[in-house]
Amino acid sequence: MTRSHPSGRDVPRGTALLRDPAWNKGTAFTAREREALGLRGLLPPHVGTQEEQVARVLENFRRLDSPLSRYILLESLHDRNEALFYRVITDHPDEMMPIIYTPTVGLACQQFGHIYRRSRGLYVSADDRGRIAGLVANWPDPEAEIIVVTDGERILGLGDLGANGMGIPIGKLALYTACAGMHPRRCLPVMLDVGTNNASLLEDPLYIGLRQRRLTGTDYDTLVEEFIEAVQARFPGIVVQFEDFANHNAFRLLRRYRERICCFNDDIQGTAAVTLAGALSALRVTGGRLADQTFLCLGAGEAATGICDLIAGAMEAEGLDAAAARGRCWMVDSKGLVVASRADLAEHKRPYAHAHAPAASFLEAVEALQPTAIIGVGATPGTFTREVVETMARINARPIVFALSNPTSRAECTAEQAYAWSGGRALFASGSPFDPVTLDGRRYVPRQGNNSYIFPGVGLGLVATRASRATDAMFMAAARSLAELVKEEDLAQGSLYPPLAKVREVSAKIAVAVAEIAFTDGLAGIERPEDLAGFMRSQMYDPHYVSYVD
Questions:
Q1: Which end of the chain, N or C, is more open, meaning fewer C-beta atoms within 10 Å of its C-beta?
Q2: Is 487 a catalytic residue?
Q3: Could you tell me the fold of the domain covering 104-261?
Q4: From 25, 71, 86, 172, active-site residue
Q5: Is position 349 annotated as part of the catalytic site?
Q6: What is the CATH number of domain 269-452?
Q7: What pTM value is reported for the model?
């Protein structure tokens, strides 16, 4: 007797089964399954195991030299055997995550129209205004519980990539499954194609998006509103993660929807949480209090604002008043130090525009403010120069240097530079991966201050509790949970984050912390389970094969 899917769908048969990645097991179908499901003769006679299949994937993956070729190989695997894809990336996160996400996903987005093979996710375009509900109804999986949506205007540090930015929601949701065990059927990647202002894309004959300039103003807002209403009607209570929107829309959309639906902006809130976690880990080395630190961000957009907001909130929790806490957080934008005397400041910068003499360059700002930590989130490569790092090392015994811009080509400095220029004293983290560095006989193992430590666990906690809102308190709790998982042996080798091999453990703990906030603040849509940690683990998808025949 064949089994049914939990959604009530029956297992496909024959070639339809082999062509459906949600069901296909390839050579691992057993003899009984082959007989019952019409597969005899459609597969080689050897009945393989998933372990054998993983070994075959790894052999082919490792013989490829190009990261983009490896990305294409994994996407092709995703298209034919979903469980095997997730087994590979779950069991080998250090090797796979730099391919399915930063830094390779940036290149994949730039080339998206040229490597496009099969539709994945939902495309909502400006041409669909007035009929988005019908479009959303076409999505085949009624189990969807979380959306990652972008409009492609600010993809990583690469700028406007239009519809090519769909690679970001696809990659993020792959991480939801690999890192937090969110079932693939619960995940919905969405591209809001409102056009692009990227001339090279508009001229590219293989570009997959609308060939028009971007919608703005009321037209843009009306499209987003129609989309939000449509997905909430089709999937009541679905969590919406805004991703890679430009500053002028990101802050507005978060303010507009965060009290109406369960939503968050990963670039603002996720980046903030992972940065705060890294800072808390660094302070275990330096011995100082967070409230005594001075943070200087290179960049003054979504990431910098989110970081300063969350760090200031954490300082308030240590006893500082709000004004004093904000006063310990500073920003440098393209025009220099953000100070109160400047008349050109966007609204989101003003809380961190303090009374101070102007500083035209980042180095001048470092010299003037003498920060204990510098945080690069401006996507301007090479801006943590030798002079900057040496100055930080002169004024701090253990300078905190976070080069968080993605992809690697946008990093403010490399791990090797940070360690070499600081005489091995820098407490370093980066947005993209860097190899270990050996300096004067000591081996340093930098780890990524990457949002993949944060958003999967936050999303799992929100979905599992059916939370009505995502709050700043949840991201504060996520940051502290992540920092608590950093061990002394990690710190001893220069690692401010736990190894990626433990990312599922990290996500489970963060999900519990988020759930605790949801229950305490009356935001949960379910009764509190007696064993909350066990409940979260029970919600996590295991990408091993199951039998389709009783």
A1: N
A2: no
A3: Rossmann fold (3.40.50)
A4: 172
A5: no
A6: 3.40.50.720
A7: 0.95
